[in-house]
Amino acid sequence: ETGVTQTPRHLVMGMTNKKSLKCEQHLGHNAMYWYKQSAKKPLELMFVYNFKEQTENNSVPSRFSPECPNSSHLFLHLHTLQPEDSALYLCASSQASRTGGQPQHFGDGTRLSIL
Amino acid sequence: GQQLNQSPQSMFIQEGEDVSMNCTSSSIFNTWLWYKQDPGEGPVLLIALYKAGELTSNGRLTAQFGITRKDSFLNISASIPSDVGIYFCAGHPGGSEKLVFGKGTKLTVNP
């Protein structure tokens, strides 16, 4: 039990489908993150939300659309994805800090496969 | 952008042996974190380091924040089969919320 819950754990979708990934944190944190983890690559930061406001979009294609309705919930809406988007998508949370440097706690990820 | 060079990429050891892995950067980092990831799960935080020279232990794990603020190492003593997994270093450069990750060290422990 990490305090960060992601659903679904596995998702297979066609390139024309629309789906959403969900993340919920129970740690009282106020910053949330989406990462992409592909084989043999470092974790890639996609989006950062601090106090529900998006503060980072790491040049992510518009077919990925994040939503953060409150400090505990984070969504990643997916549409018209490409095969190269198949990866493990990880959500993380941390305590936001002006000076930065707070450890991030991760969920177990959604394994996404694009057909 | 900033990069972390983590080595070795993989290690194959016998149960009971000690393990050492490290991470280096060309720029200064304000924090160093070490995570472990098991198959099918997300990274789990093992140790967090906040000050240059800091040495911190968590059971059989010991990590140090390099005095130059450009490197960190993780040692595992008396390895056991459940130590198997991928170990990632990560750090916050210059007060940023953005966490930079190494590529990971894959550890295999033979019983």
Report on the structure:
The complex is a heterodimer of chains A (115) and B (111). In chain A, strands 2, 4, 5, 6, 9, 10 and 11 form a seven-stranded mixed sheet that branches. Chain A has a four-stranded antiparallel sheet with strand order 1-3-8-7, with no helix packed on it. Chain A contains no helices and eleven strands. The termini of chain A are far apart. Chain A has strands at 4-7, 10-13, 18-25, 31-37, 44-50, 53-57, 64-70, 73-79, 87-94, 105-106, 110-114. Chain B is an all-beta fold. Chain B has strands at residues 5-7, 10-14, 19-24, 29-37, 44-49, 55-58, 61-65, 71-76, 85-93, 100-101, 105-110. In chain B, strands 2, 4, 5, 9, 10 and 11 form a six-stranded mixed sheet that branches. Chain B is globular. Chains A and B meet through strand 5, strand 9 and strand 10 of A and strand 4, strand 5 and strand 10 of B.
A few lines on this structure:
Chain A has strands at residues 4-7, 10-13, 18-25, 31-37, 44-50, 53-57, 64-70, 73-79, 87-94, 105-106, 110-114. Chain A has 115 residues and is mostly beta strands. Chain B has 111 residues and is mostly beta strands.
Helix and strand arrangement:
The complex is a heterodimer of chains A (115) and B (111).
Chain A: E1 4-7, E2 10-13, E3 18-25, E4 31-37, E5 44-50, E6 53-57, E7 64-70, E8 73-79, E9 87-94, E10 105-106, E11 110-114
Parallel strand pairs in A: 2-11
Antiparallel strand pairs in A: 1-3, 3-8, 4-5, 4-9, 5-6, 7-8, 9-10, 9-11
Chain B: E1 5-7, E2 10-14, E3 19-24, E4 29-37, E5 44-49, E6 55-58, E7 61-65, E8 71-76, E9 85-93, E10 100-101, E11 105-110
Parallel strand pairs in B: 2-11
Antiparallel strand pairs in B: 1-3, 3-8, 4-5, 4-9, 6-7, 7-8, 9-10, 9-11
